[in-house]
Amino acid sequence: MRNILLIAQREYKEQVRGRTFLITTILLPAVFAGVFYLSFLSGKHSGTDKHIAIACSDPALAAEIRTEILSDTDAHSTVDLFTAEMPGMLMDSDRSKLVSEVDSKAIDGFFWVDVPATGPIQATYEAQTAGDFVTSERLQSALNHALLRGRLVEHGISAAAADSLLKIVKVDTRQIKNGKEVTSNAVSSFYSAYIMALLLTMTTMIYGLNVGRSVIQEKTSRIFEVMLATVKAGDMLTGKLIGIGAVGLTQILIWIAAGAIFAGSALGAQYLSGNLQIHISLLQIVLFGVYFLLGYTLNSALFAGLGATLETEQELQQYSPLAALPVWLSFSMILLISTNPNSIWVVAASLFPPCTPIVMFLRMGSQMPPLWQIGASIALMLLAIWAVLWFSTRLYRIGILMYGKRATLPEMMRWLRYS
Fold it and tell me: How many CA atoms lie within 13 A of 277 on its CB side?
């Protein structure tokens, strides 16, 4: 036990004193905070400040559409009513004129609405950008709203009554927990879980790969040959896992303390409001620590055994997709997780050990999973860790002293028998 603690202490001090620890501790959360804030701002201001022309064969409908678009104060749009060559009729020459205006960037796009005497209305939005779905949705909503208002007025309902009927009703969201109603914010809950899942992912991946790099560096420098004279290979691996894992926990505690200080400041209260509010419960904090330790141990044990079979860090880098694959799989299910957190596929993914930490925290953003599922996920992760450690320690004991060639799969199977 003393040897394990000495090795863990050595690994911890070596990592904490390094320049990489200082840079990642400060730079990594700053980069993520900037990315999240920019994504929030880009989503808030998408499809705004557009200069649009409305070409409609029905002037009254065109005026209604323009009124509907301008009533959306978040859009900040400039809307012109296009005057056709022949009133009440749209010609190909009108479309050509509008196309040339878009091409010369006099306007951002035009909304073409043809209202025939018989048959359905044809509506088209044309612009230089192909992916401006926000503006397309806004125009579609304005057209349908204007048509419905016009038809209500045609049937004898006053304009004021029609506006009252079509007034948008804001829907507040509440969540039922243990038979009680509590206020909730889907956006802030999602962001809270997403940030914690992302931090959990990055730290377990980074420090898991750090274990593999540390093994390769000491293997190539032949330090192990000296250390193995007094320390067992299993104790060396255990100490390395504990030491580097403690570095990860130290970094997370620094982030939590810095986040708490920022949230309690006047600047933090100003920014963390509305949809940017972050609510994290004590249970989530505890589970974050638990899933970090489990996820880190699983990844680091895998890469420690893998690192013992390799010769260079470049070879280890080729295997980094092994750690990224569960991340891609978990985040590819993010829409399903947020909308249906108790579906059979989501539950299965949350019980699959490589995906458990990420999927569980994404589920917490929508609804806290049942305690039995949390317990089952932790038990399955412990079982997976035991299996990976059993495999990795046997590769580690022999592979750490092998030089000159890359281990093949049949050769690694022989190492397992030797151990």
Answer: 10
